[in-house]
Amino acid sequence: MDxxxxxxxxxxxxxxxxxxxxDTARVDYRMKRWLNPFALSELAIALTGMRGAGKTTLxxxxxxxxxxxxxxxxxxxxxxxxDRFVLETPVGRKRVKLVVVPGQKDSPPGRRTISxxxxxxxxxxxxxHSTSCGYSTIWDPNTQRAALDLVPxxxxxLPAVQRIQNYxxxxxxxxxxxxxxxxxxxxxxxxxPIWLVLAVSKVDLYRTQSALDDAGRYYIPAAxxxxxxxxxxxxxxxxxxxGQGRFVHKDGGGxxxxxxxxxxxxxxxxxxxATAVNAxxxxxxxxxxxxxxxxxxMNTIGEFCGVEPR
Length: 310
Hints:
This is G domain-containing protein. By secondary structure, the protein is of the alpha/beta class. The protein has one domain: Rossmann fold, CATH 3.40.50. It has 8 helices and 11 strands. It has helices spanning 5-19, 55-62, 108-118, 141-149, 160-187, 209-219, 230-242, 287-306, and strands at 31-33, 43-49, 81-89, 92-100, 126-131, 195-200, 248-250, 256-258, 260-264, 272-274, 279-281. Helix 1 (5-19) runs antiparallel to helix 6 (209-219) and helix 1 packs antiparallel against helix 8.
């Protein structure tokens, strides 16, 4: 049995939405204000990812705190962000506590957040992990310049944007390895239902069929494990370690649902720029694309939070 087939099918379905958004922005599961700040949370969600992957912007967009069409403010968020809300699901409302984990995991705020979210008896019910297909923002101009020098000897010359992408993809993989270790520790000792959504952001920068197909192959394990990319091999390893069955639950009709998804997303419209090395990539997005993909992410989270354990 090909465990990862439904995840690939969902990605393929959403690549069609990326290319032809149309009228697909319906949100079935909505977030609402948590009016009682002292109530105990039922679900804990962690939003993870490397520096510059767009975690804060994704969080704001999902919570409608980033108005559609408004560009995100530039700047890092080195500290954790905490949010509480009520989520409508197929089995009723769920109280949720969401924590955005700093990308700088070795910083004091990062270590404190990791201890709070992943260590001891703490374990998030679900994880929304943000990646960006190599388009993570590099804030430091010196790092931008250094990224261009990390090219293997004898390798063909590549455009600046592609060299920045390769640099970011390696650091994105390193970050996921850290996240994988944290989740393996947190999830192996809990019996609660768990889910994982990989949000492949900034899709407006690579909005072509071939680029989307490449991204799907990179992030999602293949039918043949020998064909896995470095990233998808680690994702497969995480799920195998925790147990494939841990992510399988039943929907309202009693059908099994794998609560793992890899989703393209665009939280805001902006060209990519690394000014220190003159690396530019234009945005090919529009408001229909943003609305449709954010709705798909929100619906997936609501769907996963609403299914019952086997």
